[in-house]
Design a protein that fits this description.
The chain has about 260 residues and is of the alpha+beta class. It has a single domain, classed as Creatine Amidinohydrolase. The strands form four sheets. It has a five-stranded antiparallel beta sheet with strand order 7-6-8-13-14. The chain has a three-stranded antiparallel beta sheet with strand order 1-3-4. A three-stranded antiparallel beta sheet has the order 2-11-10, with no helix packed on it. The longest helix is centred in the first third of the chain and has 24 residues. The structure holds magnesium ion (2 copies).
């Protein structure tokens, strides 16, 4: 399947979808506290998407029952929101998507609940930094492998497990478009990036192994060894200069 190139109008719609997602993240971040359930966070996402006149791309996808994915501690991705209540010291990844005028956005962020351990703090800061390392390579003329290479180099040097069974993806008229974007790779490998490509870049790191397992609910993916995991994702547009972050959260910008 060919990789689609978006025009300025398409990218404007993706910017709007990204803005809705960023607003969801802002409200989720404010709500996260010990005692709050993952289902309550899901309600915030559902209501914010509706308030903004957007559509959820997660709800109902292959039967997924939530408006966001909530993955706690050793859970990496695809956690189902529900009755679980957060406790002090947990970390939670909230992965949120939305559609505006047929165009998709996708962004995940890992948050601490109250005071978290030094190891967990370091994991969150370094996974976020790995996202920006990868994202900085999403430049017209680079090959796709440069993104994964940058993530792998940054995370590997610091001793993290790098989840290899899941990764980023093209995004636009669909949530998952070509190409798959692994969080490892070689700079000279893969397709050549062009201005107008829109990509979801999403490193997932762990304090232990690379390997994953799917839990009994048949959705939630966790680390094989139970080590804690973080996941940071932005939807970006490749330009001739620096990539444009379409899901930017104003109060969470690091560069
Ligand atoms: Mg996502
Ligand atoms: Mg994604």
């Amino acid at each position: 399947m060919a990789i689609s190139i978006k025009t300025g109008t398409d990218i404007e719609k993706m910017r709007l979808a990204g803005g809705v997602i960023a607003l969801c993240h802002q409200r989720v971040k404010e709500a996260i506290a010990p005692g709050v359930s993952t289902g309550e966070l899901d309600t915030i996402v559902r209501d914010t998407i509706a308030e903004q006149g957007a559509v959820s791309n997660f709800f109902g996808h292959q039967g997924f029952p939530g408006y966001c994915c909530t993955s706690v501690n050793e859970e990496i991705v695809h956690g189902i929101p529900g009755k679980r209540r957060l406790v002090e010291g947990d970390i939670i990844t909230v992965d949120i998507g939305a559609i505006v005028e047929g165009f998709h956005g996708d962004s995940a962020w890992t948050y601490g609940v109250g005071t978290i351990s030094d190891d967990a703090s370091r994991l969150l800061a370094d996974t976020e930094a790995a996202l920006y390392e990868g994202l900085a390579q999403a430049i017209a003329g680079n090959r796709l492998g440069a993104i994964g290479h940058a993530v792998e180099g940054y995370a590997g040097r610091r001793g993290y497990g790098i989840v290899r069974e899941y990764g980023g993806h093209g995004i636009g008229r669909q949530m998952w478009e070509e190409p798959h974007i692994p969080n490892h790779g070689k700079p000279g490998h893969g397709i050549r990036l062009r201005a107008g490509m829109t990509l979801a870049i999403e490193p997932m790191l762990s304090l232990g192994v690379d390997d994953t397992r799917v839990l009994e609910d048949e959705w939630t993916v966790a680390t094989a060894d139970g080590s804690w995991s973080a996941h940071f994702e932005h939807t970006v547009a490749v330009t001739d200069g620096a990539p444009e972050i379409l899901t930017r959260q104003a109060d969470l910008v690091v560069q």
